Amino acid sequence: MSEVTRRNFLQTSAGAVAATSLLGNTARADVNGKIRVAVLGVNGRGRRHIKAIGDIEGADVVLLCDPDEQVLAKRAAEFEKTYGRKVETETDMRKVFDRDDIDVVTVATPNHWHSLATIWACQAGKDVYVEKPGSHNLFEGRKMIEAAKKYKRIVQHGVQLRSQPAIQEGVEHLRKGTIGDVYMARGLVFRWRPSIGHKPDEKAPDFLDWNLWQGPAQETNFSRRLVHYNWHWTWDYGNGDVGNQGVHETDMCLWGLDVKLPSQITAMGGKFLWDDDKVTPEVLSTNYFYPEENKMIQFEVRPWMTNSEGGATVGNIFYGSEGYMVVKGYNSYEIFLGQKGEPGPKNSGDDPVDLHFTNFLDAVRSRKAETLNGPVETAHTSSGIAHLGNIAFRLGRQLNFDPKTEQFVNDSEADKYLTREYRKPFVVPNEV
Question: What's the pTM?
Fold first, then answer.
């Protein structure tokens, strides 16, 4: 089918069902039995995706996609040098989805593209590994779940702590009561974030398809204050550090406490250090309360000079009636018992990224979504809690939220922040 015909076909409910039937529920493989992978977004995190797939037997990266031709050419040259073979390149991810010789896509684009890329991939019969945060707003996370279920796709969220055996062991300690009744989790994101200065609007460079880069966001002028990394610090494309590094820690809070979305949210913060183009707060303190479970989450974002807490600068602390547990980074935990904090169990391991990709590809082969360590539901909840905190900060008041309806309680002003106005044709659909 032509590109337009195939896309229109997938957008109809009847066509979607038929497409699912035609594509089947098993991963297609090349003549050598390998899963064929395309990496979407290769400027930053995508480089780690390339390496992880390249290190796993039974899968091959066969295509790199990025709207920046300069970045794309650089990554393709690096790939050839590392693996001794050429890799295909493409600037428009829609053309990747139209190909029947791609089994899996990994999504390492800016945040505002994560959900739509995942949904389009599911509609096209591809399995997906999507970076955190899975969504740019709460509405998108729910649509990702619906798309994965409807098209029977394997979707792994890039919260790799869930694939680290040491951290899994730590969560088991929380479950069996090693630190007693666990009532609170604290998430820490203390990262070195310098000034980004001031950058003017200017003409987009010829090697960057600025229209594709903006995608679902409303059209604006190009500026180097956005491309390539500093988009994190503006609401149109990023979600601040709580929705950047912080999603690993929000996910850890939810996993450790065994909760999902909260009922009450408060947040306070601001910019205290730099006169620069960042829009999101440099410092953000957020509280989330779960009245039914009688639990709460505290979350702290700090830049520049700060202390550690329990030896952690990026990580989590869980508080119980008999002690507390500190999770440091991505691969270790340590337990302290009693009022004096006597040393208890601890464990550490290696970077779990490769384990997380291996877990994903194993599920692609088995078609058992229940074996995923970071299933699509975590893309919704661990990203969603970050979004709720940001909304409370932007409105400057406590918010009451109904986790069952995923709407704020009698608060139409807050509800407006649950989604966004999308720019055609890059629209996250109500009906996936």
Answer: 0.93
